[in-house]
Records
---
Amino acid sequence: MKDNTAAYNWGIFWSFVSAFLWSTTFIGGRYLLKDRSVDPVTLSLFRFAGGGGLLLALGIFLFGGKMFALKAKDWLGMGVLSLFGIVGMSLFLFWGQQYTGAINTSMLITAGPIFIMLGGVFIGEKITRWGILSVCMGLIGSLLVIGVIDAKGFNYEPSGFKGDFLVLCSAFCWSMYSILSKSIVNRIGGYIYTTWTMLLGSAVMLGITIFNSDAVVLPKTSNHWLVIVYLAIFPTGLAFFAYNEAMDRIKLSLLNVMQYLTPLFTVAFAFVMLGEKMTLLSMGGAALIISGVALPSLAKYIRRF
C-alpha cells in the first residue's frame, strides 16, 4: 500500500525544487536577452531540445522500451499540451522580456497560479477558504517582493503594456498546461510525460526557426553558451521533471501555492548576483509568501484537532 504521508512529503520536496530552479531562468534569460545575444525562439529551442534530449537518454537507460510504449491518445495529448506548456509558455515569456522590465514580468507570471486555481474547478478540485487565503497571501507577497506595491502605492508602468501582455499570455499557457496534464501524468508518469512534451515542443520550435531563419541570432561567446547549457539542464530538464513528479503526489491547489516561492528565490538571486537590495516591504512580502505556502499544510493538521 502506498504511503500517503511519504508521497505528500516527496511532492512538497519536488515542488520546492522546481520553484527554486525556475527562479534561475529569469536571471539566465535576462542575461542573454538584455543585449539580444540570442533570439527568443532559438533560446527556447536550445533550452528544451537540450533538456528533453538529456531526459530521453537517461529515460532509455532507466525505463528502456517503456519510454516509447505509449498509446496514440497519449502522443496526441502530449503534442497538444506541449503547444501550451513548452512552446507558448517559453516564447511568450522571452518575447515579453524584450519589451518589459523584470518587475512587471515577475508580477504577471504570478497570475499563473490564479488561473490554475480557478481552472482546477473544471477538473474536480474544490477551492477551499484556506486555498483562497493562501493564494491571496502569495499574490500580495509576490507584489511586495518584486516592488509593484511600494510605500507610495501601486507602482505600474503602462509603457510596458506590449511586454506585459505577452508575459500574461505565457502565464495563461502555463496554467492550461498544468490543469490539463494531470490525467496524462497520472497515467504514464511525470518523467515520460516531461521528456516527450519537451521534445515535441522543440520540434515545433525547430519548424518555426527554419521557417523564419532570417531572425535567428546565435550566441557568440562561450559564456552565453554555458548559460544556455545550464538553462537546458537545471531550470528545464530537472525543474520540469520535479514539477510533474510533484503533480503526481500532491493536489494541484497546493502545488499552485508552492510556485509563489519562485519570485522569492528570484529576488534572492538578484540580490546576490546583481547587487539589488530588498526593502522592508519586500522582506514583509517574503514572509507573506512563506506563510502562504505553509498555510495549506498547517490547515491540514489544524483540522485534526
Note: The chain has one domain: 21-302.
---
Amino acid sequence: MRIGRLKKRADFLRLRRAKLRTAAKGLVLQAAPIPRMSGTKPSGSSEDMRVGFTATKRIGNAVVRNRAKRRLRVLAQTILAQRGTPGYDYVLIARDGTGVRDFAALQDDLHYSLKRVGLLREAAGQ
C-alpha cells in the first residue's frame, strides 16, 4: 500500500474539522476521506492514503518534538500501512508522553484509535 505525506496547511485544517477523531494516551488521531476532484482519482496523487504529523511546542523543545514525530512516522509505516483504510487521510498528533511512552503502548494506542473511529482493517491472514 502506498502512503503519501500531508504537507499543505489546508489539508491539516480540513482534517481538524473532520468528524473522525479520537484521543488516546500517547497520540491523537484525525481522519477524513481523501477529497475527490472531478473524476475518480484522488486530488493530487495516486497514494492509497496520506499521513501528516504534528507536534506542538506544548509538548517540549525541538528535540522532544522531533523524537515524537519520528516515533509517529514509524507507527504510520508499520501499522497504518497494514491496518489503515485506503482512501483516507490521517493526521497523528503527538501528546506529552509520545516521546517517552513505551513503543508497544503507542502501537496499542493507534490500534485503539483506528478501531474507535471505525477505520481498523483486518490484517491479512486472520
Note: The radius of gyration is 14 Å.
